[in-house]
Amino acid sequence: MGRSDATGRQHRLHGTVDLHITTPASVVSHIKSGRLRALAVTSAKRLPSLPDVPTATEAGLKGYDLDSWFALYAPVGTPASIVQQLNAEVNKILQMPEVRKKAEDSGTSVEAFTPAQLGEFTRKELDYWGGVIKSAKITAD
Questions:
Q1: Measured between alpha carbons, how far is 86 from 80 in angstroms, rounded to an integer?
Q2: In angstroms, what is the C-alpha Rg of the chain?
Q3: Which residues contact 41 (CB under 8 A, 6 or more apart)?
Q4: Taking 50 as the threshold, does the pLDDT of residue 2 lie above it?
C-alpha cells in the first residue's frame, strides 16, 4: 500500500510506528485497514469515522483537546463584497452531501463560518496558543 506525493515518490508503512501525531485524514485509511492502531484522537469528541477510538481525555490525558483546522483567508484589503461572495460560495460547497461525506469519512468535520465568526475563532486560537508558547517559554531558536 502506498501513496505518491507531488514528486511521484511512494510512501509506505514499514516496520513499527512507535508514535505518530498527525491529522486524521492522513491515517484514517491505515487505521481502518488495520495497518495502524490508533491509541486516541486528540479532539474533545470521538471522530464519527473512528467511533471505537477514544479521545485522549478518555485514554487518561485529562483535559487534552487539540484539533487541527483549516480555513480560507483573503488578503487584507479585499473588498467586503468579494469576501462575502467567496464565503457564500465556499459554504454552499461545504453543505454538499458528497463533500460532507468525503470529509467525514477522512476524519474531518465541516463547519461553515461567516467571515466574522472565522475572525473571532482565529483570534481565540492565536490568544490561546500564544499563551501556551509564552508559558512554556518556547522560542524559535
A1: 10
A2: 18
A3: 24, 47, 50, 53, 54, 55, 56, 107
A4: no
Q: Cβ(43)–Cβ(23) under 8 Å? A: no
Residue with cell 483537546: 65
* Mean pLDDT calculated for residue range 99-126: 92
Residues 129, 134: Cα–Cα separation, whole Å: 8
Q: How many CB atoms are closer than 10 A to CB 45?
A: 11
How long a stretch of residues is the chain?
141
Q: Which residues does 106 contact at the CB level (< 8 Å), separation at least 6?
A: 24, 25, 28, 49
Question: pLDDT tens, 15-39?
Answer: 666 777 888 888 888 888 888 889 9
- The model's pTM is 0.73
